[in-house]
C-alpha cells in the first residue's frame, strides 16, 4: 500500500500534555537520544529541509512539537496524522531542574496522550546496544496499549561500512535503516510507518 505525501506543516509547540492541540488525528511520536536524528528524520519523511529544527549540537529540540502531515492513498483517500518531534533523552548539558521537568512532562505526554498510535524509537546505527536505548524500550513496553505500536529505526546508516551494515541488519531483523544523506528506502519506510499508525 503506497501513501503519497500531500503536505506537511508545523502546528504548535507544547511544554506539557495540557498545552497539546486538540486530539483530532492519530499521532506518531519520534523518540530517541539527543542528536540521534529525530528532527532530521521527520524532515526526511515530510520531504522538507527545515520543517523540524535540526542541529549538530545536542539538545536542539526542547518542546513537544506537532506537525500535521497529509497523505493520499487510492483506497483510503486523504489521511491526516500528527508527527510529533520530542526533545532527546539523555542530554546532560541542561540544568538538572529543567531536565527533571522535561522528563516529567514528557513521561506524562507519552503515557497519557490517547491519540498516540505509534512510537518510533530512533537509534544511532553506530551505537546499537546502549543502556539508555534498552531502558527506553522497557519503559515504553510497560505501558504500551493494544492499539499502539512500537518500531525501531536506525539512523545514520551511511556511517557504517558494508560489513557493519550487514551485521546490524542481522541483529535487528524487524528494524528499518535510514540515512538522511542517501535517502534510498525512504518511500518504503514512510509507507511502513503509516500502515503501522493505522494499526495494520
Ligand atoms: N550522516 C548522517 N547525519 C545525520 C543523519 N540524521 C541526522 N544526522 C545529523 O545528526 C545531527 C543531529 O540531528 P537532529 O535531527 O538535530 O537530532 P535530534 O535527535 O533531533 O536531536 P535533539 O533535538 O537534540 O534531540 C545533525 O547534524 C544531522 O545532520 C543521517 O542519517 N546521516
Ligand atoms: Mg531534534
From TrEMBL:
CDD domains: YihA_EngB. Coiled coil: none annotated. PROSITE patterns: G_ENGB. It holds the Pfam family MMR_HSR1. It comes from Helicobacter apodemus. The lineage of its organism: Bacteria, Pseudomonadati, Campylobacterota, Epsilonproteobacteria, Campylobacterales. Its cofactor is Mg(2+). NCBIfam families: GTPase_YsxC (TIGR03598). Belongs to the TRAFAC class TrmE-Era-EngA-EngB-Septin-like GTPase superfamily. EngB GTPase family. One of its GO terms (molecular function) is metal ion binding. Residues 24-199 form the EngB-type G domain. The keyword Cell division applies. The keyword Nucleotide-binding applies. Necessary for normal cell division and for the maintenance of normal septation. InterPro entries: G_ENGB_dom, GTP-bd, GTP-bd_ribosome_bio_YsxC, P-loop_NTPase. One of its GO terms (biological process) is division septum assembly. This is Probable GTP-binding protein EngB. Keywords: Cell cycle, Cell division, GTP-binding, Magnesium, Metal-binding, Nucleotide-binding, Septation. GO terms for cellular component: cytosol. SUPFAM superfamilies: P-loop containing nucleoside triphosphate hydrolases.
Amino acid at each position: 500500500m503506497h501513501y503519497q505525501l500531500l503536505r506537511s506543516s508545523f502546528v504548535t509547540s507544547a511544554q506539557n500534555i495540557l498545552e497539546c492541540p486538540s486530539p483530532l488525528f492519530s499521532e506518531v511520536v519520534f523518540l530517541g537520544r539527543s542528536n540521534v536524528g529525530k528532527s532530521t528524520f521527520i524532515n526526511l519523511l515530510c520531504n522538507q529541509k527545515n520543517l523540524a529544527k535540526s542541529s549538530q549540537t545536542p539538545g536542539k529540540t526542547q518542546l513537544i512539537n506537532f506537525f500535521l502531515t497529509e497523505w493520499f492513498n487510492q483506497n483510503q483517500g486523504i489521511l491526516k496524522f500528527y508527527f510529533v518531534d520530542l526533545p532527546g533523552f539523555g542530554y546532560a548539558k541542561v540544568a538538572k531542574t529543567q531536565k527533571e521537568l522535561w522528563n516529567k512532562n514528557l513521561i506524562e505526554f507519552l503515557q497519557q496522550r490517547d491519540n498516540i498510535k505509534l512510537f518510533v524509537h530512533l537509534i544511532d546505527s553506530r551505537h546499537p546496544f546502549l543502556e539508555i536505548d534498552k531502558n527506553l524500550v522497557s519503559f515504553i513496553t510497560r505501558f504500551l496499549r493494544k492499539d499502539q505500536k512500537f518500531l525501531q529505526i536506525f539512523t545514520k546508516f551511511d556511517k557504517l561500512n558494508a560489513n557493519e551494515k550487514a551485521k546490524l541488519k542481522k541483529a535487528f531483523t524487524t528494524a528499518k535503516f535510514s540515512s538522511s544523506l542517501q535517502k534510498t528506502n525512504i518511500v518504503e519506510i514512510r509507507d511502513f510507518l503509516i500502515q503501522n499508525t493505522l494499526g495494520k
